[in-house]
């Protein structure tokens, strides 16, 4: 076991070094072939993706900036040089006081930007790198020293809502929605607030110096990028955020919140025969568990409903599956518009479950709850144990490690309940009525039943349970198909000609390619037109 671990680690280290050499060679070519810069620069900032390797979003960031430079558009990188007391990816949630891995992270970033600096000193500037360090602020330290978690979460300093900007990162790192008011949690939030304020000061100066036309940041949810985004938008600057797309090796760029996935679909858009066939082929693979997200394959061996389950289900009038989600997806600011959080919804749901013993409820935990290195600490599994859900005669709990086919379960159900998981969109496509409790990517269009108050959500659940039949409006299925098609084939911008999975599939490495191929790539053209001209980040067909 240890031998395999160290072998894998050595392999990763070798691949990383070779990849960095490949990046530096490509960067030299970019510098050599870039025309003189003209106009205000585009700012790029990504402190929360990748530490000692090339993440997919780091790859999107780098390639997009290269393409701009090759067209004579000046690029200004805002780069961390131990500029955060505690950073998102470097935090050890078991030992928050542990020193940050700044040495390896800065070394990796300097490998990415090395030839940028060399070129700038020797030629007409088409790019620049601004390295920011960390400076503690005694006034701020004194202001937050004795605050509890609630006070820190709402803390504002010089009109900057630092507490609110830091909460998503803290919840993501700890994999907890309901934060404990203990010293470790307070310490982390204090240090995040101090770090966000440092970013705010340094980034404000950087904006004063560069006067950019637009800002491009990773994600926009984690506090370094969220702070930069907030400040840029206050100045009236356009801010573009990016995330991984729905398809492998694809990116999603938007002027909105990338994690919320805002998509504008023309009212008149209808799938033609070829598009329907393409979507159906994708769904057929997905319904068999053949899909990945950000390099992670969740269902290696999806299983059908076994005989014991079917025998139990036969004792009940109807089946209602309840699909939950992982803590970060349910803790983002835009998710909880009806309930305080997913567990508040589950508490309400459990009370109604106890009133409807003729219905078999199947509560499904998301497989990502137990993902290696990113496992949740506040889980649906722990909620189920705490509430002794297994003792309820009309409940079957499916844990995150069980690979039961959700799609086969949906087919046998009266209706489906979700918080904000993608399975709700797929259930609508299957023609199933879906009762949604949290704001999801797809709820921006009529795709599911989405009550807007807690009381209404409870009434609708009871109404559905008591109805002889539930008819989902035809527009739900239509809009669900249109939305998924846009997600897959219009907004997911392929980078597969330039990036490929690394030793860890959640990381990437650079392919060998010609600079002309980069500039001529449809995805790159879409992104450049979106950044420079304000066009939508959509692939044409």
Keywords:
541 residues; alpha/beta; Rossmann fold; five-stranded parallel β-sheet; 44% helix; 12% strand
Kindly name the structural category.
alpha/beta
Largest sheet: 7 strands, mixed
Shape estimate: globular
Strand order in the largest sheet: 3-2-1-4-5-6-12
Number of helices: 19
Describe this entry's structure for a reader.
With 541 residues, the chain is α/β, with parallel strands linked by helices. It has two domains: 2-263 and 491-533, no CATH class; 273-489, Rossmann fold (3-Layer(aba) Sandwich). The protein is 44% helix and 12% strand. The protein has 19 helices and 14 strands. Strand 5 and strand 6 form a beta hairpin. It is globular and about 70 Å long. It starts with a helix and ends in an 8-residue tail after the last helix. The model is unreliable at 118-124 and 290-300 (pLDDT under 50).
Topology:
Layout: H1 2-33, E1 42-45, H2 56-70, E2 75-80, H3 102-122, E3 127-132, H4 138-144, H5 149-153, H6 162-174, H7 183-210, E4 214-218, H8 223-234, E5 238-244, E6 250-254, H9 273-286, H10 307-313, E7 318-323, H11 327-331, H12 342-354, E8 359-364, H13 380-386, E9 395-398, H14 406-411, E10 416-418, H15 423-429, E11 434-436, H16 454-466, H17 474-489, E12 493-494, E13 499-501, E14 508-510, H18 515-520, H19 522-533
Parallel strand pairs: 1-2, 1-4, 2-3, 4-5, 7-8, 7-10, 8-9, 10-11
Antiparallel strand pairs: 5-6, 6-12, 13-14
Helix pairs in contact: 1-2, 1-3, 6-7, 6-8, 7-8, 12-16, 15-17
């Amino acid at each position: 076991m240890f031998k395999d671990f160290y072998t894998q680690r050595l392999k990763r280290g070798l691949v990383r070094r070779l990849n960095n050499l490949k990046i530096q060679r490509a960067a030299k070519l970019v510098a050599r072939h870039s025309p003189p810069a003209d106009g205000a620069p585009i700012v790029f900032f990504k402190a929360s993706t990748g530490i000692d390797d090339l993440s997919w979003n780091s790859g999107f960031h780098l390639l997009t900036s290269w393409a701009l430079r090759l067209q004579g558009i000046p690029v200004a990188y805002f780069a961390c040089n131990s500029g955060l007391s505690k950073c998102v990816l470097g935090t050890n949630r078991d030992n928050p006081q542990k020193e940050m891995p700044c040495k390896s992270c800065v070394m990796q970033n300097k490998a990415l930007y090395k030839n940028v600096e060399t070129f700038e000193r020797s030629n007409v500037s088409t790019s620049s790198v601004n390295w920011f360090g960390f400076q503690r602020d005694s006034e701020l330290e004194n202001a937050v020293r004795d605050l509890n978690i609630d006070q820190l979460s709402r803390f504002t300093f010089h009109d900057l809502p630092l507490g609110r900007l830091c909460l998503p990162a803290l919840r993501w790192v700890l994999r907890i929605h309901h934060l404990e008011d203990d010293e470790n949690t307070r310490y982390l939030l204090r240090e995040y607030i101090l770090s966000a304020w440092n970013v705010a000061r340094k980034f404000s100066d950087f904006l004063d110096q560069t006067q950019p036309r637009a800002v491009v940041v990773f994600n926009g949810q984690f506090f370094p990028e969220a702070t930069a985004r907030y400040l840029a938008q206050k100045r009236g600057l356009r801010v573009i955020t990016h995330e991984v797309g729905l398809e492998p090796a694809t990116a999603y760029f938007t002027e909105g919140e990338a994690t919320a996935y805002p998509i504008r679909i023309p009212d008149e858009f209808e799938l033609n025969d070829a598009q329907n066939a393409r979507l159906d082929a994708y769904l057929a693979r997905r319904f068999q568990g053949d899909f990945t997200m950000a390099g992670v394959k969740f269902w290696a061996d999806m299983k059908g409903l076994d005989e014991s389950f079917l025998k139990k289900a036969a004792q009940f009038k109807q089946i209602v599956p309840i699909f939950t989600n992982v803590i970060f997806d349910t803790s983002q600011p835009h998710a909880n518009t009806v309930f305080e959080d997913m567990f508040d919804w589950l508490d309400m749901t459990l009370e109604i479950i106890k009133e409807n013993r003729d219905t078999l409820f199947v509560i499904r935990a998301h497989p990502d709850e137990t993902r290696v290195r990113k496992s949740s600490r506040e889980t649906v599994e722990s909620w189920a144990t705490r509430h002794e859900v297994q003792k309820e005669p009309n409940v079957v709990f499916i844990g995150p490690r069980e690979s039961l086919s959700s799609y086969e379960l949906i087919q046998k159900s009266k209706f489906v309940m979700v918080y904000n998981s993608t399975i709700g969109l797929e259930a609508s496509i299957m023609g199933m009525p879906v009762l949604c409790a949290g704001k999801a990517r797809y709820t921006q269009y009529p795709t599911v039943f989405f009550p807007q108050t807690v009381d209404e959500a409870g009434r609708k659940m009871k109404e559905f349970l008591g109805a002889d039949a539930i008819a989902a409006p035809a527009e739900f299925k239509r809009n669900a198909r249109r939305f998924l098609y846009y997600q897959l084939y219009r907004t997911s911008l392929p980078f597969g000609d330039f990036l490929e999975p690394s030793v860890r599939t959640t990381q990437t490495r650079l392919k060998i390619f010609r600079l002309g191929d980069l500039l001529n790539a449809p995805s790159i053209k879409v992104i450049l037109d979106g950044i420079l001209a304000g066009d939508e980040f959509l692939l044409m067909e």
